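Q: Can I see a sequence and its folded structure?
A: Here is a first one.
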Amino acid sequence: MRTRAIAAVALCLAAAAGARAEEPGGTDDAALEAIVSAAASGATAVDRSWLYNDPTRIAAPGRAVGLMRVTYGGGSPTRPFAGNLATSGALFEIGGEVGLVDNLSLLAIGAQGENGAGSAQTGAMLGLRWSLLPQSVRKTHLVLSGGVLRELQGSAGAWARASFGHDAGAVRFAASLHAERLFVSGRDAVDVIATAGATIRLLDAVRAGIEYVGQDLEGTFDDKEAEGGPRHLIGPMISAALFGQRLSAAAGPVLALGTGQTHVLGRAALTYQF
């Protein structure tokens, strides 16, 4: 329906422009400019500029944002994004987000990789994202989300997350707190993951910055933590938003620290708005 409405407006503008073109000083190019301007006005920028932090810009109603992401490294703390206990080698994710109504969207991500034992497995993450602040607040975003997951180990569970984002001139900040509960014995009652990051705009379409991920933070104060204790990840990243921010690309290396974590990992991501 939105596409038809945009087309109708574009045709009206084109007709008006054509009428002006017949007047002295008018040009045939005015009709084409009217159509392009009307179509462009229907696009909503998404600018997925983070590698690990949760984006706090929700897809508009009727819009879809496709995601493709590759992570490489052993024991990478990527569970808040793929629902996995640990990865060995490459992890491939594909999915997206669809805007349902104002400030509410549906998120679905599938993952293909290896579990902690090195066996090929699939995982998935499904949930809803709700933007709490009105659209008139353009520089600060607060999103609550939650749903169900299947980790690469095969266990099912539930997850919830609070995500914050803020733009201050050329600088952008993000942070999130993620919690999940797996419905299987022998695991932690609740797993806690935190992310934080900051980027600065270098060019109109290019940003660079640093991101942090802390996984299994509940183990900081619990000697009986079931999954090996807290792990930390930190590293630089760079992103580019192209074609009116419809296409976003991001990549960067990171250093994993913590119990059994002393190696360099990497991640690259592409998102596109339909």
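Q: Show me another, different protein.
A: A second, unrelated one:
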Amino acid sequence: MAEWEKYCLSKEADIQKMFPNANLKNPHTFTDKLHWLKIHDSTLLKSFCSDKITLHDYCIEKLGKDICIPILKTYNSVNEINLNELPNSFVMKCNHGSAMNIIVEDKTKFNFHLAKQKLDKWLKEDYSVHSELHYKLIPHKILVEEYKANLGRSDLTDYKFFCFNGEPKFCQVITDRRAGEKISHYDLNWKYSPRYDWKQYSSDPTLEKPKHYEKMIEYAKLLAQEFKLVRVDFYEIDDSVYLGELTFVPANGKQIFKNPNTNLELGKLLRL
């Protein structure tokens, strides 16, 4: 553990170079503190919970049940994958990073050759080079999840709870991923909160509150207990709540808020 902490400290100059405006010596804003946490709080537990396979175990430990989307198969390499043992619809992904997903709605129209090329490339990628150091310790694997969708909708809505020192404070809602993605923010009473909105995206103040919103808040609080800052992501599918992932450096600290005071406001909420 001492060696890992030494390694993280050795990356401070690299992170400062990648984010030259970050104040790592005396952080006050939300984004400054996110970058500080990379160096001083990239724990083994964060690695365990960022692994999309072992996250299931953490979920069981904290909630007494697994509410992650079920895993059908895991593989160490693309050569182990046997399409004949998979259903017609599924999701392939790597366990050790972000944006490493292949959604297969119909196996008969699936370009498996191209998918293997992508997966093989992803397996070789060290996601920690993007400055999220806790990804360094995750063994690289492929997993296949059940395909989940809500009837009549083209994509799933993400409900992402920002939790500060174990307490959920607000929910980020991502809609319309396939056609003009929107990112909106609501407080815990489901009141639209534009002060958290990002410059990069439009938002929707008229979204319908999910049926199991209070249950999501309850789960988020339990899953966030061990962390200074974590975003807990959920889906509501077929009248059930599913855990998507735990994210420890949302947007890698690159978000730009529409409200110029929000970065400092959120920084005050986060106790290091």
